[in-house]
Amino acid sequence: MPGKTELTMELISVIVPIYNLDAYLYQCINSIIHQTYDRLEIVLVDDGSTDNALEICESFRKSDPRIKVIAKPNGGLVSARKAGLNASTGDYVFYLDGDDWIDKDCLYQYYQYAKNYNVDIVLGDYKREFLGNFVRINNSVKPGFYDRSRITREILPIMIYAEEFFHHGIKTYSWGKLYKRGVVEELQNQVPNEIMIGEDAALVYPAIFISNSIYITDIAECNYRQRPNSILKSTNFDKNELNRIALAFNYLSNVLVTNDPGYNFLHQLQAYFAAISIIRTGAFLGDNKQYNKFRLFGEIQRGARLSLYNSGSFGQHVFKHIKENKHFQYVAWFDKDFRENNILKMDVSDPDEIMNYDFDYLLAPSFDPQIKHEILTLFEKMNLPKSKIRYISFDTSKLADFIESVGFDATTFLPLHRK
Is the omega angle on the peptide bond into residue 166 within 30 degrees of 0, that is, cis? Predict the structure, then answer.
């Protein structure tokens, strides 16, 4: 990063949307007020919390004149971010969710990059925390300064989909980025409040699309908390959820594809939509007809004994559908984080015990190459046949067919056969 130099200290508005997060607010707010960069406006937006969140916000406001508190009826994350942004006055905007926190030099370092390189957005890596364990998450695009020419050549063509199913070039999260106000003010207010899945992408990708320059850092000063009650994903998937997913993609299609058909944006959005849909449907293991059409884990014979590896959102959906599908036999579920999963009452076993189970296939419901590495290492150590491993696989030449098969137009992402 640039060396510590004297910089004109412009006002940074830190906007924190909050809904029923009283257990985490002290750490979040304290991490902001104790930043080494202290020319801050801290906007705490209580989105109709029913716990003690608002009282905690008010107590901080009384002790720090930089803090503003907005109390509004519950309207969702997008509306809360809009309320905070519209009440703020800073030259720069930084979003932080109420259950996350930042390291003490975070804003100082981000601001140095913003000023020394005169960029519209500064973005970096982050640390993901779950029950005290931290994992660093990196962007796929190399760190460095990107002027408009480099953005158009090196970022926009892989921004949403980096050509390996499925990875983003730039992570979708809108928090943990430092924006010039002029870049996000209009864009944030254009995002429909109804978008509840993909609301981060609905801001981040259009913002990068219009930016003249950005800086991608390799620092990880933001801490994203995976809460125990959020790691347990709802597996009650229905058509309404696909409709909710499609809202963000219809919006992004209008903003990106309609405004500029270049950069392969439509293909990128189609791949992103397919990835989310595959995760949320558990790869269609609960729908034999749909599964047989795309065979996302390859051909699985009726009566096959199935185990799986990965206890994240995708794994939880696959687990549910294996258990409910009478054509398969469920054997076991493995993950290196089995101790944390057991705390959450999830029936996940130690991978080192895999030799104790007899199965035909081990499904790997994940797009993360680290999971693939873990499984390969495990099978080599146990001298198990790798032919039993079934990774998720998708033929991206069938993206349009896939999207239409789940009921949506492959260009607009609007529902087909609307009444």
Answer: yes
Q: What is the DSSP letter of 296?
A: B
Greater confidence (3 vs 43) lies with: 43
pLDDT at 349 (0 to 100): 95
Name the residue with tokens 């579920």.
Answer: 333
CATH of the domain at 28: 3.90.550.10
Give residue-wise pLDDT tens across range 240-275: 888 999 999 999 999 999 877 789 999 999 999 999
Angle between the N-to-C axes of helices 25-33 and 53-63, in degrees from 0 to 180, rounded to the nearest 10: 20
Do 12 and 94 touch, CB atoms closer than 8 A? yes
Domain count, the chain: 2
C-alpha distances in Å from residue 115, one per residue of 38, 94, 290, 293, 359 = 16, 15, 52, 52, 57
Tell which wins on pLDDT, 226 or 335: 335
Give the list of residues 6+ apart from residue 344 with CB closer than 8 angstroms, or none: 228, 231, 232
Please check whether residue 145 lies inside any domain of the structure: yes
Instruction: List Cα–Cα distances, 149 to 54, 152, 213, 216, in angstroms.
Output: 45, 5, 9, 15
Share of the chain above pLDDT 70, in %: 95
Residue 334's identity, in one-letter code, is F
Range of the domain at 78: 12-231
Cα(93)–Cα(97) distance, integer angstroms: 13
What H or E segment, with its residue span, contains residue 148?
A: helix 148-150
> Going by DSSP bridges, is the β-strand pair 222-225/126-130 parallel, antiparallel, or unpaired?
parallel
